[in-house]
């Protein structure tokens, strides 16, 4: 099962919801393996982060508030670029959610996990 964090109403949100549900069903029947981890770096206020959270809600996994003292290194790195997303600890995208890019990377991980 894949999860991330968000749901932005640009484009066809019904199509996104349908596709996400199909991914969920497909992954529920898949062998249990380590889930990919998408990390969102954020701070308050951040309207783009709020948008991103809505878009990715079906994929929800992890969010890092960069304003917390323990995340000061991330604050120094991303304070002007949020939202920022990492997938499995690697930079993926920033500023806006690119569902196409995200799904491509998730499929790549799925193929690697299946030995392909």
Shape: globular
Q: Helix fraction?
A: 40-55%
Distance linking N and C termini: 18 Å
Give the helix tally: 4
- The overall strand count is 4
Please trace the helix and strand order, writing H or E for each element: HEHEHEEH
Low-pLDDT runs of 5+ residues are 1-32
Strand content: 15-25%
- Strands of the widest sheet, in order across it, are 2-1-3-4
What is the radius of gyration computed over CA atoms, rounded to a whole number of angstroms? 14 Å
Structural class: alpha+beta
Q: Describe the biggest sheet? A: 4 strands, mixed
Give the overall pLDDT as a whole number: 74
List the helices and strands and how they pair.
Blueprint: H1 13-28, E1 38-42, H2 47-55, E2 62-65, H3 72-78, E3 84-87, E4 90-94, H4 99-113
Parallel strand pairs: 1-2
Antiparallel strand pairs: 1-3, 3-4
Which terms would index this structure?
single chain; transport; 116 residues; Glutaredoxin-like_YDR286C; alpha+beta; Thioredoxin-like_sf; 4 helices; electron transport; Glutaredoxin-like
Produce a short descriptive summary.
By secondary structure, the chain is an alpha+beta fold.
Describe it.
- The chain is of the alpha+beta class and 116 residues long.
- Helix content is 41%, strand content 16%.
- The protein is built from 4 helices and 4 strands; from the N terminus they run αβαβαββα.
- The chain has helices at residues 13-28, 47-55, 72-78, 99-113; strands at 38-42, 62-65, 84-87, 90-94.
- The protein has a 4-stranded mixed β-sheet with strand order 2-1-3-4, with helices on one face.
- The longest helix has 16 residues, at 13-28.
- Residues 1-32 have low confidence and may be disordered.
């Amino acid at each position: 099962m894949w999860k991330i964090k968000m749901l932005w109403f640009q484009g066809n949100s019904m199509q996104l919801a349908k596709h996400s549900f199909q991914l969920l069903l497909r992954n529920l029947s898949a062998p249990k393996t380590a889930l990919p981890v998408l990390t969102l770096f954020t701070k308050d206020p951040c309207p783009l982060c709020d948008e991103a959270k809505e878009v990715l809600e079906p994929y929800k996994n992890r969010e890092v508030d960069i304003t917390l003292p323990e995340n000061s290194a991330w604050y120094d790195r991303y304070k002007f670029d949020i939202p920022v997303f990492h997938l499995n600890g690697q930079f993926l995208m920033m500023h806006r959610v690119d569902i196409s890019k995200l799904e491509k990377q998730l499929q790549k991980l799925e193929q690697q996990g299946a030995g392909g």
